[in-house]
Amino acid sequence: MTPPPALAIEDVACRFGAVQALDGVSLEVRPGEVVALLGDSGCGKSTLLRIVAGLEQPSRGRIAIDGQVVAGAGPSVPPESRGVGLMFQDYALFPHLTVAQNVRFGLAGRTRADGDPALDLLAQVGLAALAESYPPTLSGGEQQRVALVRALAPRPRLLLLDEPFSNLDRRMRDRVREDTVALLRRTGTTALLVTHDPEEALAVASRVALMRGGRIVQVASGETLYRRPASLFAARFLADAAEIPGTCRDGAVATPLGPVPAPGFSEGVRLRVCLRPEAVVAGPPGSGTPARVLRRTFLGAATLLHLAVPGLDAPLRARLAGRGPYGAGDAAGVTLSPESVLVLPDED
Amino acid sequence: MPTERAALGRLAPRLRAAGPAAWSPRVWALVAGFAALLVLAPLASLAVEALRGSSGLWPHLLAYVLPQAVRDTVLLLAGVGLVVVAVGAGAAWLVAAYEFPGRRLLDWALLLPLAVPTYIVAYAYLDLLHPVGPIQSGLRALFGYARPRDLVLPDVRSLPGCILLLGFVLYPYVYLPVRALFLMQSASLIEAGRSLGLGPAAVFRRVALPLARPALALGASLALLEALNDIGAAEFLGVRTLTVSIYATWVNRSDLPGAAGIALVMLVLVLALISVERAARRRRHYAGAAQRSRRMSRTRLSGLPALLALGLGLAPVTVGFLLPAGYLAVAALERLGSAGLSAAIVSETLATLAYAGVAALFATGLGLVVAAGPLLSAGGAAWRDALLRCATLGYAVPGAILAIGLMPPLSALDGALDALSRQITGTGLALVGLGSGTALVYAYVVRFLAITVGSSEAGLARVPRSLGDAARVLGRGPGGALARVHLPLTAPAVLSGALLVFVDCVKELPATLLLRPLNVETLATHLYGEAARGTYEDGAVAALLIVAVGLLPVALLLRVSTPKT
């Protein structure tokens, strides 16, 4: 018998007045898995998280945690009885309680003979020295760690994280993110994370559910979602790309860069060829399609070239390792890297 | 299904049923319903009582009581309304638009008259302006008159006298919100007016004042409700208002249906007042439109204009606070020097503090629970708003109306308890409700519940929603989240509400006069008794104590209304 999923969301809908926040969402999270809900603000991802936590009620559908139905059949199980942890975007640390008291908040009634579990947990993330401080005196990164430890302390069956890194500056974010993922792995925590940042979703989650307008449009591993987006929307959400519109003729799309194969599309379908920088290979003049360098952007480890190709409205971007031999105004040649080219049905 | 049940069984010890959360909204509905009932019961009983009166009741009231009482009350309200708006808005504009030596002092000193209840200002001025009192004697000495009858001042014991005195202690109700609004108003609106060719006076009249209309309406309605609640000043100064008539009808003629009838008429007046205020505030959305922009810069005054501004600003403070409080201090010190602190004053002070303290405690607890409703039950509901509005209706019901409305149900309750006791034990019970002070505390709580509900609501609104959610997810029920997170964070707001109620109870006169247990005096009723008898014994001491207590919320307001920079 396979164990029940840690979290099962079945056909959940939620309506606030005239706004349909969620419209038939289904998703399963397996034990030990970290899944990201990715989408723009207003797509319903935070509402879904709050419904799972029990802070909002779905107007339709079921939620089951470890096989136990907590919403959708009979009276809804209140948040305090669901055994979930929730880490808030603003951390929601209680300002009138010390760091240790914050962490102990969810441990009420559970005492252990061998020391204070709150202090042990704080020591694990290097915050033992701040146990008696009050949250407002802590830095953003420290507050984030306290919030994470507080949510994990009661050993929740499922940890929910609402934009857990969005209040940190960029430099700090990468480190905190790695630490957080390591802690989740170490504790074997099942987690559902909400984010609007594709990079973050790819870095943290084993699977990503992309949401749009109250629905899930694609659930896949981060790599699949990036490499094989199921829709133009998904392709656009994950990365910027130059788009060349066209029509499927004899299994290919004609572009100024030559025909691009469009396997599986029927004759006459309107398509878009999406060229991310890694799909565009810049070479010396004479190789491939002639192009001219408009501008180069030095990124440190790599250089981004902006290339004008006759017949294309917008410039293409190509990524070069190192500095590359090209300057603005230089002539160049462009070829495509076939495995990175995306061909998707037009949506507009 | 079997797997599901197995999983449920496995998890059961870690999970509680939905029960504990489900009762909280129901408990709230019960408490809020109880609070609403507390308010509505006396109003309903008023109507019943007035209908039960003899057939001659209404013709009698209409012929002999109501014409003069309604006329005096309406004239008093109109006059007080004019004075509080003129003085309150004028003072607010003075400290908001001009800079002059002493302005920062005036900023808060203008609030001081809030500490002086209407009956105390009347009590003080009766003596101050007495033909042999300090003011008239001083004027005679100044102008060389020998005898009182050589210099005859207009008698303060008149409707105009009453209007002026009430106006000069009640104007802070207008000053406070209007000043806040002027300070919030953006400089660009004022400057736009100036650039379009308006002088300072025209800007005040055509830009600032219309913008302040919602605050003016709010402040004036609060001041007028206070004026309507007044019993002492009107009676000492010989104005026969509805409140005075209610009291006289009940105390002198023991005519409860008659008093209830007058109270009903007064209730109509209250409703009219509130609907006028609502209408004036209807289009209030433009009031706060410019909150984030630059503050108005003050025009700097110097020389004679500065002196004039200071004098203008000091006038209401002097009339409304310095003169009466100074007189009371001198008179109280003389009394204490000659007779010492009387035992009566000590026991009256204790009684005052006890009633006010118990009422503040109940009002705070009840107010907190009522205000916490939205936190305890999910989703907005129309019935919840309705309950909340009913529970906070009492602030608009003058103490005399409340007291008269409370008497029939409480005496019925006393009678029932007495009969029950006789049946069970064979001996009767004395008046449990009316005789023990329960009635008085009841009236205080109903009258001032809006204050504690309001301050609790304001405090709770400042607690971010995620904190409450975090407490829930960390395993607390709605009540637990309230107790462990909201309550500690809301304590300052709740306590300030409790303090305001406490002080208002100490100052409250009409309900205290009508509902206090037999032979119990509070500071306020003591003062009333002496003024009514025309004796001047411990009255000044009692009045000074009340004013001293009344200064507490002024200090509190000061802290709240001074922006931290």
In N-to-C order, the SSE pattern of chain A is EEEHEEEHHHEHEHEEHHEEEEEEEEEE
Overall, the morphology of chain A is: globular
- The stretches of 5 or more residues of chain B where confidence is low (pLDDT under 50) are 1-22, 285-292
> For this structure, what is the CATH class of the largest domain in chain A?
Alpha Beta
Query: What is the general shape of chain B?
Result: globular
Unreliable runs of chain A, pLDDT <50, ≥5 residues?
none
**Proportion in β-strands of chain A:** 25-35%
Percent of residues in β-strands of chain B: under 5%
Q: Residue-averaged pLDDT of chain B, rounded? A: 83
- From the N-terminal CA to the C-terminal CA of chain B, the straight-line distance is 64 Å
Order of helices and strands of chain B: HHHEHHHHHHHHHHHEHHHHHHHHHHHH
Tally of contiguous helical segments of chain B: 26
Q: Write out the CATH superfamily name of the largest domain in chain B.
A: MetI-like
Number of H- or I-type helical stretches of chain A: 8
Largest sheet of chain B: 2 strands, parallel
Count of domain modules of chain A: 2
Instruction: Going across the biggest sheet of chain B, name each strand in turn.
Output: 1-2
- What share of residues of chain B is helical? over 70%
Specify the CATH architecture of the largest domain in chain A. 3-Layer(aba) Sandwich
GO molecular function (chain A): ABC-type ferric iron transporter activity; ATP binding; ATP hydrolysis activity
InterPro entries (chain A): AAA+_ATPase, ABC_SmlMolc_Importer, ABC_transporter-like_ATP-bd, ABC_transporter-like_CS, ABC_transpr_FbpC, Mo/tungstate-bd_C_term_dom, P-loop_NTPase, Transp-assoc_OB_typ2
Keywords (chain A): ATP-binding, Cell membrane, Ion transport, Iron, Iron transport, Membrane, Nucleotide-binding, Transport
Family (chain A): Belongs to the ABC transporter superfamily.
